[in-house]
Each structure stands twice: as C-alpha cells, then as structure tokens.
Design goal:
Length: 388
C-alpha cells in the first residue's frame, strides 16, 4: 500500500513508564518497518529512546510546556486551544492519539480532524484510577472530555472493558484492537535454573512486573505470599513501594520478597524466563501488556477478573477474584505443585500470543483502520465550532 505519514501522539511516552509508552513505542517501530513515515510526538523530556528510534527510522518531536510531575501531563497544552498544535501536525496524513484522557493526545486529534487529517485515538483506560491527581482532575473535566472525544473519526479500544468505558463519553465508532507483543524479544526457550542462579534465588520464583500503585493489587499479592512456599520478585517503582516493604516486614515475610525497583526493559525477558509463575493481581486493569510478555515467554499466568485481564488469559491461565489473597495463593500453589498443568498453560499462552497479539498482526490491523478513516475523510467532514 501507499506509504503514509503518521504521527503517534501522547503525553504518556517515555520517560513515563507504563503500558501506553510500550504500546506507542512498539507500534511506531512496526509501522515504520511496514514502510510508513512515523513520528512520535510527546512532551519535551529526555525519553531515553532517542537512539533506538533513530535506528528504526522513527522521528521524535517534542512539544514544549510544563509537565505536571507524577501525572505526566502537559499543563501548557491543557491550557491552550487545540489549534496551537496545527503547525506541528500539518505534514501528516494520520494523527493517532494514545490515551484518551490526556491533553496532548486529545488536542492533537482535535486539531487534526479540523485540518482534514485522519484522526484516531486509542483508549487504554477502564477508569480514572491511574493516579489520585488525574482522578481528581477528571471529575471536574467531564465536559472537557465529552467535547474532545467527539472529534476522532475512529476510536480504538484495547479491550472490551475499555470500549465500554469510553462509550460513556462519546458516540464515535469504537473498534477493539488489542495491544501487541514483539515475539522476537520475549522468547520461551530460556534455561530457567541458570537464570535463577544469576539472581541468587533458590526454589520457586513468582514474578510481578508493573507500576507500584494501589490499583495494581500488589498488597494482596504480598498477603498471599504468607501461604506460598516461594520467592516473590517485584519489578517496578511507584508511590506505595515504602508501604509495601513495611507490610512485608510486618507479616514476617520480607525475606521471601525482593523489591527490584525499576529494571531496564532489556532485562525483562530474562526475568520472565527465570519465573515459574507470573501474577497480575490488579484491582483495575484495561489490558495488561505484562501478561502478554509473560505468556510469550511460556510462563503460566495468574490474573484477576478485573477489566480486560480475562480477555487476555481466556483459558490460558488462572483467573481469580480481585482482592482475594487466599484465592490468589491457591492459584499460585496449584501451578507450583502441578508442573503438568503449569507447562500446559505456558504452551497455550505462547500459542495464543502468536495467534492474536503478534505486533506484525496488530500493526496491520491498525494500518487498515487508518486506510478506512482516510477513505472517508473529506473537507466537509471537519468538526466545526470553538476549541477549548
């Protein structure tokens, strides 16, 4: 097909670590490999990905402004009209915002629609619980979201749960296209015992990877560890890390838990390869890319019935009730004590990822969405009216 000029836009690209950044980064690379001209447009911060993007032929455009610490949103963009972004977006055929409730994505998509560009938005949320600050802002900004969320030609949701949430704000058509995974990065042929030795861990290894936030349910996992004979490795940083350390100490199980903090993305495949079980104990979750990473690595997974998690696991792991430490412990122990079941689920998970979540499949679906939108764009299709 004809090469497109594509802008992927979001406040939540690196250095803000999370599923949105991973999704946006990998999508840019795979669209570039498919022959398109792709730029990532984000806040004016050092991302740490400059060299990698350059090597993949992906551009990086930084929008100046004051970025609210912790939340990671550009307050200067939030305060200005969307048309201020027009000069940055003029050269693109498609403007694709990432995360439906952040100002840079919303206003870029609005500006693109008014300029007659293809305007799409991917929503990665099932609620406003990513941070207390964002939740507080969101309560007062409902009309703001309702206005801007009518502007995309198309919205992409990463799960059924995220589709249901975004439909509360807009009548724009919503398609479900899942997050993707790079199968060349997450292999399933690691020597698990050798990797454990490198980590200095003996016995079963239970792994959690993600932000350290209340909605992730890590406190529940720590409670479950009282009844699990194994070692828990927690990878990630966040606001509740000190409280979780204190909880583990109070329960007398600090010696069973290793808090690794932030780990470079290049090290994650080896950590998955060393683990016997991966757990995502979230109380709220739109998708959970880390589940794909674990499944691609052939690791049996335990997740909760929150948000989009059951859609991902779908018979390839164990789903438990959010917030139930006893149920979580039983599920982990079942996998640790039944190697046949663990091996079967690990293989099923890998096959499911290969079939549904390979970035080569996902990028092609998103590319098709771009083409469908562009085929329907005309000058009289622009959204009129004032900007906030």
């Amino acid at each position: 097909m004809e090469s497109l000029k594509i802008a992927l836009v979001s406040d939540w690209y690196y250095p803000k670590v999370g599923g949105v950044a991973v999704h946006m980064h990998d999508l840019a690379i795979h669209l570039s490999r498919r022959g398109h001209e792709v730029d990532i447009i984000t806040n004016d911060l050092k991302t740490g990905k400059e060299d990698e993007l350059k090597g993949e032929g992906v551009g990086l455009v930084k929008v100046p402004g004051h970025v609210m610490e912790g939340v990671g949103i550009n307050m200067t963009v939030f305060a200005r009209n969307a048309h201020n972004l027009r000069p940055i977006l003029e050269k693109y055929d498609v403007v694709h915002g990432q995360h439906a409730f952040t100002p840079l994505a919303l206003k870029a998509v609005s500006s693109a629609r008014k300029a007659g560009k293809g305007a799409l938005l991917t929503t990665h949320s099932v609620n406003f619980e990513n941070s207390k600050t964002l939740k507080m802002l969101a309560k007062g900004a409902f009309p703001y979201f309702k206005y801007y969320l009518k502007n995309p030609h198309r919205i992409i949701a990463v799960s059924k749960a995220s589709k249901e949430f975004i439909k509360k704000f807009t009548d724009v058509p919503v398609d479900i296209i899942y997050n993707g995974i790079s199968l060349e990065r997450f292999r399933n042929d690691w020597d698990r015992e050798s990797l454990k030795n490198e980590l200095g861990i003996e016995g079963p290894l239970i792994l959690y990877v993600g932000r350290i936030e209340p909605r992730k349910g890590i406190g529940v996992l720590i409670s479950a560890m009282r009844n699990i004979d194994g070692n828990l490795v927690i990878v990630g940083n966040g606001s509740t890390l000190p409280l979780l350390r204190e909880k583990a100490r109070h329960l007398g199980i600090l010696d069973k838990i290793r808090f690794m903090g932030h780990v470079e993305y290049s090290r994650l495949p080896g950590l998955y390869g060393a683990s016997d079980v991966f757990v995502l104990p979230s109380l709220s979750e739109a998708f959970g890319i880390v589940l794909l990473e674990a499944m691609a690595s052939g690791v049996p997974v335990v997740g909760t019935s929150a948000g989009g998690i059951p859609e991902i696991i779908d018979g390839c792991g164990i789903v438990v009730t959010p917030g139930n430490a006893d149920e979580l412990a039983d599920a982990v122990n079942l996998l640790l004590n039944n190697q046949n079941l663990a091996g079967k689920l690990g293989k099923l998970g890998r096959r499911r990822v290969e079939k549904l979540y390979d970035w080569r499949i996902i990028a092609k679906k998103i590319e098709s969405a771009y083409v469908e939108v562009l085929n329907g764009v005309s000058n009289d299709d622009k959204i009129g009216g004032p900007d906030f």
